[in-house]
Amino acid sequence: MSNLAETALLETERRGDMLVVTASGVWSMRARAAEARNMNRSGETALAALSSGSESASSAPRVLELRADRLKDWDSSLLALFAELAGRARQAGMTVDYAGLPEGMARLLALADAKREGGAPSASGQAGKNASGGKKAGPEPAGLLELVGGKTLAVPGLTLAALNFIGEVTAGFGRFCIGRAAVNSRDMWRVFRQCGVDALAIVSLTSLLLGLILAFVSSLQLRAFGAEIYVSALVSVSMVRVMGPVLTGIVLAGRTGASFAAIIGSMQANEEVDALITFGLDPVDFLVLPRVLGLAVMTPLLTIYADVMGILGGFLVGTLMMDISPSAYWENTLANMSLSQIWIGLLHALVFGFVVSITGCYQGLKAGRNVEAVGQATTAAVVNSIVGIIVSTSVITIMFTAVSL
Predict the structure, then answer these.
(1) CA angle, 366 as apex, 365 and 372 as ends, to 5°?
(2) How far is C-alpha 388 from the geometric centre of its chain's CA atoms?
(3) List of residues 6+ apart from 385 with CB closer than 8 A
(4) How many CA atoms lie within 13 A of 121 on its CB side?
(5) What is the rounded CA–CA span in Å between residue 29 and residue 46?
(6) Which residue from 1, 21, 131, 218 has the least number of CB within 10 angstroms?
(7) Rounded to 5 degrees, what angle do the CA atoms 203, 204, 206 make?
């Protein structure tokens, strides 16, 4: 039998325009399971007193004071009851005072009030109010100069982090070459299938349509000079040298690079990457290296396929709509397309494969641990991959133009 000092009690007292609710004893559902009925009865009494006091506007209390002077122990059961009392009091237009509560309880109740009202917690429970009685204004949005300055100052750190990641991938590739990398062969073949065979449909459609578009656009200008036959040369050279690799890289950036970022970002959010580190597995070897190697191998192969489909699209336009004989079209195509142009296009494709795979894996590994962060990482992977493709295309084109290739 527990003594009176340990019994859970909730006393209600009216003091002028103030309603004082005092908790005493032990309020713990786990330790005092036998007194749950008494605790519920005390709470119902306090709620009834609060409801009856608010029925008459003339006699209604204006302040609810919550106290815990003789409280021995408490848990969330008392906290939930006080939160319900405070909520009902505010609905009745009363002010709630937490000054008589322990600091931890007052802070938790103030936080609950802030979440309910959408403001910031305060010790008195009057969250989100300023001295004039209005809501506190949120932080002002950053101006243009501040935004640009913040992005500029972040560039050195981001550049260093990206270079460190590229160094880790390079070291992992070195371990792979000497047979010491923790790479699963089944994962490698699965990446090959996802990057290659599964992408054939979208690459076929986009490359064929691109060849059609190039043939149509070029024919409008060449027809004025009676040189429609050179449509075949323009389509073949542009597809093999630049357009085929660029189109394939952009398709893979939106399809495969985004998938890499989403998969690894989800693993990061679910703490699966931390589990790999705990088991002694390097995430770069286990997650990044198969994807980088798979995309670097499959992108040139897909580029060759895209070149063929683009040339086929130009062939359909030239033979069916421009009355060019098939034999003349193929002879002119082969006469103007050299082996060096094919190698330049494959070099573009190889670089794009590394750019897309490394960017997608990097954004996935640096993603936060929530759904929104995974979405942001996926978006950043696509955007950065496309920018990287355009920049690398410009650099390679300038390099080979400088050496007359």
Answers:
(1) 105
(2) 20
(3) 249, 253, 257, 355, 356, 359, 360
(4) 13
(5) 18
(6) 1
(7) 65
Q: Which amino acid is at 35?
A: E
How would you list the strands of the sheet with 63-74, edge to edge? 9-15, 18-27, 63-74, 95-100
Cβ–Cβ < 8 Å for 352, 387: no
The pair of three-digit structure tokens given for residue 113, joined into one six-digit string? 């009030």
Task: In whole angstroms, give the CA distance from residue 265 to residue 271.
Answer: 10
| Residue in the structure block whose two tokens are 């981001």 | 158
Which residues have a Cβ under 8 Å from the Cβ of 90 and sit 6 or more positions away?
Answer: 96
List per-residue pLDDT tens for the chain, 405 residues long.
Answer: 445 446 677 777 777 778 888 877 777 765 555 555 555 555 556 656 666 555 555 566 778 888 887 777 777 777 777 788 888 778 877 888 887 787 777 887 887 777 666 544 444 444 444 434 444 444 566 678 888 888 888 888 888 988 898 898 998 888 888 888 777 778 788 888 888 888 899 999 999 999 999 998 888 888 878 788 888 889 999 999 999 999 999 999 998 999 999 999 999 888 888 888 888 888 888 888 989 998 999 999 999 999 999 999 999 988 888 888 888 889 988 888 888 889 999 999 999 999 999 999 999 998 888 888 899 999 999 999 999 999 999 999 999 888 877
- In terms of C-beta density within 10 A (0-12 exposed, 13-18 middle, 19 or more buried), how is residue 154 classed? exposed
Q: Other CB atoms closer than 10 Å to residue 259's CB: what's the count? A: 19
Question: pTM surpassing 0.85?
Answer: no
Query: H-type helices in 9-119, by residue range?
Result: 36-53, 76-91, 103-117
- Amino acid identity of residue 302, one-letter, is L
